Amino acid sequence: MKIGENKVVALDYKVYDADTKELLEDTAELGPYYYIQGMGLFLPKIEAALDSKSKGYKTTIEIPMEEAYGDYDEELVEELTKADFADFEDIYEGMEFVVELEDGSEMVAVITEIDGDKVYTDSNHPFSGRNLLFEVEVADVREATDEELDHGHVHEYENEE
């Protein structure tokens, strides 16, 4: 089956900082990444490169930061206080949490440092400010279910082999 609009893609990849060659993420540790082609759920340059490809296809894709996660934005780094986290049982460096924005949308932030009563958070994507190099392999392709299309994301993945 070929990758096309509304197909579920199971993708194995390694992503590197294209400039330093530092390995940033490897799906070998977490399992494949699943997305629905054509719904804007993954980087557009990767979706475009994989369109009409099949299971087993491998490629390397370089993506400049402007086409990936953008420049690092210092305005997304905030200094809060522990009182701002009163609803949490425990907080720790590296903890991710969801921030609801004024427009009702949500964004993920991470606690980068705790210094006494001060809590520093960062809402930048971990790969922002970096040119990226993806080594990808299509692990599988299948039709998305009606429910997945309605919900806009992949549900439990079932390999149809």
TrEMBL record:
InterPro entries linked: PPIase_dom_sf, PPIase_FKBP_dom
EC number assigned by the record: 5.2.1.8
Catalytic reaction annotation: [protein]-peptidylproline (omega=180) = [protein]-peptidylproline (omega=0)
One Pfam family named in its UniProt record: FKBP_C
Record domain PPIase FKBP-type: where: 4-74
Predominant location category: cytoplasm
Top-level taxon of the source organism: Bacteria
Keyword field: Chaperone, Cytoplasm, Isomerase, Rotamase
Cellular-component GO terms for this entry: cytoplasm
Localization annotation: Cytoplasm
Coiled-coil intervals: none
GO molecular function terms listed in the Swiss-Prot or TrEMBL record: peptidyl-prolyl cis-trans isomerase activity
Keyword Protein biosynthesis: no
GO BP terms, alphabetized: protein refolding
Main EC class the enzyme belongs to: isomerase
Function of the molecule: Also involved in hydrogenase metallocenter assembly, probably by participating in the nickel insertion step. This function in hydrogenase biosynthesis requires chaperone activity and the presence of the metal-binding domain, but not PPIase activity.
Family recorded in the similarity comment: Belongs to the FKBP-type PPIase family.
Protein name: FKBP-type peptidyl-prolyl cis-trans isomerase SlyD
Organism placement in taxonomy: Bacteria, Fusobacteriati, Fusobacteriota, Fusobacteriia, Fusobacteriales
